[in-house]
Design goal:
By secondary structure, the chain is mostly helical. The chain has one helix at about 1-55.
Length: about 60
């Protein structure tokens, strides 16, 4: 009976660890997408500023 309780506790622990890892992976994937979008915006803003500077010089 005691071994069964220990096995159940270990299994529950493994499920909790697996659930935590899944949540972490989802968050990391979402953050990677946001950082890629942010990089694109930064590049576009820099290009726009450079074009405006060139237009002002002309």
């Amino acid at each position: 009976m005691l071994a069964k309780r220990r096995a159940q506790g270990a299994l529950e622990y493994l499920f909790m660890v697996a659930a935590a890892l899944i949540v972490i992976l989802i968050v990391v994937k979402m953050l990677r997408g946001k950082t890629a979008e942010a990089k694109e915006v930064i590049v576009q803003n820099n290009a726009t500023k450079e074009l405006q500077e060139l237009a002002n010089e002309a």
